Amino acid sequence: MCGITGIYAPGHDAARLAFFALYALQHRGQESAGIAVSDGGTIKSHREMGLLSAIFDEEILSDLTGYIACGHTRYSTSGSSIVVNAQPLLETTEIGDFSFAHNGNLTNTDELRDTLAPTTILQASSDSEVLAKLIVEAEGSMMERIVTVMHRARGAYSVVLCTRDELYAFRDPWGVRPLCLGTYGDGGYVAASESCALATVGAKFERELAPGEVVRIHKGGVESIVMATTERKALCMFEYIYFARPDSTLNGKTIYMARYAMGRELAKEYPVEADVVMAVPDSAIPGGIGYAAESGLPYIEGLIKNRYIGRTFISPDQSMRDRGVQLKFNPVVENLKDQRVVVVDDSIVRGTTTPRIVQLLRDAGAQEVHVRVTSPPIKHPCYLGVDMATYDELIGANYSVEEIRKKIGADTLGYLSLEGLVRATGRDEKEMCLGCLTGTYPNVPAAHRNRALVG
Ligand code: 5GP
Ligand code: MG
């Protein structure tokens, strides 16, 4: 994952707009962040490890003057967690310099890397740098270069690219990662991973980029090309399940309403006699409210989350992840004591979080704990940008639902069916990537799957 934004706003402070857009996208990655800005002449940038609020201050932002900016907040999946892998990347070509921010994972990086000129030096270890270098080495105008590279790259890439005086945004032909476009003020544009970032900076949402689309924004206006492609569309279902912010819209519907509908579907599929319904904050709250509405049970807050703790999943090792859960939640004892509690979560991935949640609720006096999950079991790794590394780590790949119930210590456990999930999103499953749920990946070559598993 990652959050990306591109700003084209003549007469405005683009770096500041990029900063606030990225702030709204911080949930998409907390490892590093950066902004590159152009005043029409030169590109300046600043990037560092850590959260946006720790990286940027007034002094740094004031120095980033210009009306075109590109920004990135990183969650690492490919390439290690070090500052040379932080983005935006800066590249030089014979047609001028550009900055580059990428969300997604390529699935033919090794093959593409082998085609780069021997004189090309890679500083980072990421697939993003390979993609940027391919653009450097391609020929023609920037638009031609991007289209050439889009025909060669496989996997997931939503990208914003800024030259000295133009902004480009493009999306892979499968449309795995989201990317949308809005207008800003008089003649300005904002591209961002999610619509919540447009709302934050006061841009007006126009549309999602189409899979395979390149948008070019420059002095003369906006141009768009959609690659002729036979590829099947494959938006990541995990954006709906967990990743995207609930106030963002996809396909004309907020993620909130989709998650609410997932909760309702789940209550129909797995009802239980209980006293109260709660959700694991924050990502499961819409699902929990939906479950409560459908079941007729009262919705309560059973756990309070510390707002200032990042997502524990991001922690690089298991022992830090283990501690994270206790640091993150405190129970509201009066709401739980002697109650039969339905607790709704959005997903069980490694199976680290859920047993601790169940234990916290029992320690707070819950009489019964019924776990309900608004996604089917995650049984397969993701090769397209979500950190669900290997089969070994995925509890759903290795145990039956009954075994998982025992491991997490729940009285009952119910996972939403694939049909229920798809219905809740209101989408056609043929336009989604369901790889982590089904093991069928629309755009990941088998050779890459084998290699990824070995590595
Ligand atoms: P587990 O402990 O089973 O690995 O993680 C499941 C919990 O982590 C759920 O509460 C879910 O909301 C959250 N989660 C699922 N996927 C991700 C992810 O990609 N990043 C982060 N930070 N949390 C995740
Ligand atoms: Mg969660």
Task: Give a quick rundown of the structure.
33% of the residues lie in helices and 25% in strands. The chain is an alpha+beta fold and 455 residues long. The mean pLDDT is 93.
The percentage of residues in β strands lies in 15-25%
Mean pLDDT: 93
What is the C-alpha radius of gyration, as a whole number of Å? 22 Å
Total tally of structural domains: 2
CATH class of the largest domain: Alpha Beta
How is the largest sheet built, in terms of strand order? 3-2-4-1-10-9-11
> Strand pairing plus helix content: what structural class?
alpha+beta
> Unreliable segments (pLDDT under 50, ≥5 consecutive)?
none
The span between the termini is 19 Å
Largest sheet: 7 strands, antiparallel
CATH superfamily of the largest domain: Aminohydrolase, N-terminal nucleophile (Ntn) domain
Question: What is the β-strand count?
Answer: 23
Q: In CATH terms, what is the fold-level topology of the largest domain?
A: Glutamine Phosphoribosylpyrophosphate, subunit 1, domain 1
State the CATH architecture of the largest domain.
4-Layer Sandwich
